[in-house]
Amino acid sequence: MLPLIGREPAVVVGAGIAGLLAARVLAAHHPEVIVVDRDRLPDRPQRRAGVPQSSHVHALFAKGVETIDALLPGFSDEVCRRGGHRIDACNDLAVATPHGWGTRFHSGLGAVSASRPLIEAVIRERVLALPRVRLLQEHTVDSLVGTPRHVTAVTLRHRTTGRGFDLPTGLVVDATGRGSRLPAWLEELGCPPVPETVVDAHLRYATRVYQLDGDAEPRGWRACYSLPFGPAITRGGVLAPLEDNRWIATLSGVGNDQPSSRAEDFLPFARTLTTPLIATTLADAHPLTPVLCSGSTANRRRRLGDVTELPDNLVGVGDSVCALNPVYAQGMTLAALSARLLDSWLESGLPPRHFHRRLQQLHEVPWIMATVADRRFPDTDGPATPFHHRLMGRYLDRVLAAGTRHPTAQHAFMGLLNLSHGPASLLSPGVALRVAMPSLLPRSWSMAAAPAERTVSPSR
Q1: Strands of the sheet with 164-168, listed across from one edge
Q2: How far is 76 from 70, CA to CA, in rounded Å?
Q3: Ordered per-residue pLDDT tens for the chain, 460 residues
Q4: CA distances (Å), origin 279, targets 18, 253, 434
Q5: What's the whole-model pTM score?
Q6: Greatest CA span in the chain, whole angstroms?
Q7: Can you state the angle between helices 407-417 and 387-402, rounded to 10 degrees?
Q8: Cα-flanking dihedrals φ and ψ of residue 183, to 5°?
């Protein structure tokens, strides 16, 4: 049992969702928490340079909603009061797969659709209102001060004035996201290298926000997701509601089949998806923004739990440790679950290696789902798929196909995607039967038509 937190403040580097939720947890264990961020944070929901992915579609899945509501009671109600939308992941989300439309029914898997700036703003306002938390803006971390066994200070530098100073700390949480320099910081302290795996399908996003006429709003569904599915289906897309009666459309493509940033190419690309539903819905809509693109979508996993020597007061959370292809929309939910894990680890007093090993277990299934899907594309860079990952991927494909015919299979698949269910749910007798005998079940409706509303319930 190590005294991880002394009199010095706990320092969280990064004021994104992972960092803010970590600060919320630390405030229950420490008298002072300082959140450091490179940006000047806005006083209202708006895009900022430090979170370039915020321009694209975001969804907070059911387990993420549940977890953040537990950490910040009333969070999801506040997001929806300010324009966010509650989405039943099986009833309100029309999922177009290569096998047909996923069956739709009331599932209780309650996700939230809203802009990333709104979700982050609600969390930020709640966390920074805590008396033990304060914010240090427009500062970057140059390095860590200490030894391979213990960090004593964080070296900060003001982005405008260039003034640098050492901030003493009792605990450091790195939540700087995909651009994290944590491996370099550890190397400078004299720690062993951090094992890292990267799987990159070279996927690119193109996003535009629209205003729909009242009569043109979708009926029978509230969001649409057209899955890319390698190797043949290289294009995908999402259409989801935002606050202020806006809709966000994000298109994606891999390798040489990527969407462009030209406005005139956006709807023609959307018409080539597995379903024309997104393009049809947007045909008469009014675009509110230019087309914004991003190619920062590689899966990257750093196995800090395998490092033999780490400082006893340094941990990483969020995308700084495990960043998944954003097309699978699990980043915010994993950030919330990481904060909950951080809370239980602080209670235990065990060394950080225990936290990072449990974090690796948390990331295992989402990592397999994302990388198995991305490795189907021929131009994907990364190590070969392990045999047991391929087996799980093949079984997931069968569950996805069965989900177009029976709600039991669809509920199991969507529950896993929402991180509300574990892999064991896919092996229940009801799911296994539908996977083994798909020909006995009726096929879903035509991909060319808008899906009708379903109100059936999954059998157990």
Answers
A1: 139-146, 151-158, 164-168
A2: 10
A3: 334 445 689 999 999 999 999 999 999 999 999 999 999 998 888 888 778 788 889 889 999 999 999 999 999 999 999 999 999 999 999 999 989 999 999 999 999 999 999 999 999 999 999 999 999 999 999 999 999 999 999 999 999 999 999 999 999 999 999 999 999 999 999 999 999 999 999 999 999 999 987 655 556 899 999 999 989 999 999 999 999 989 999 999 998 899 999 999 999 999 999 999 999 999 989 999 999 999 989 999 999 999 989 999 999 999 999 999 998 889 999 999 999 999 999 999 888 899 999 999 999 999 999 999 999 999 999 998 888 888 888 999 999 999 998 999 999 999 999 999 988 898 898 888 888 876 555 554 445 555 654 444 444 3
A4: 34, 16, 32
A5: 0.92
A6: 70
A7: 130
A8: -60, -40
Give me the residues paired with residue 208 across strands. Answer: 249
Residue 273, CB-side half-sphere exposure with 13 Å CA sphere: 31
CA gap 100, 405 in Å, rounded:
9
Q: State the residue for tokens 């991880």.
A: 4
Count the neighbouring beta carbons within 10 Å of the beta carbon of residue 175: 30
> What's phi and psi for 198, nearest 5 deg?
-125, 130
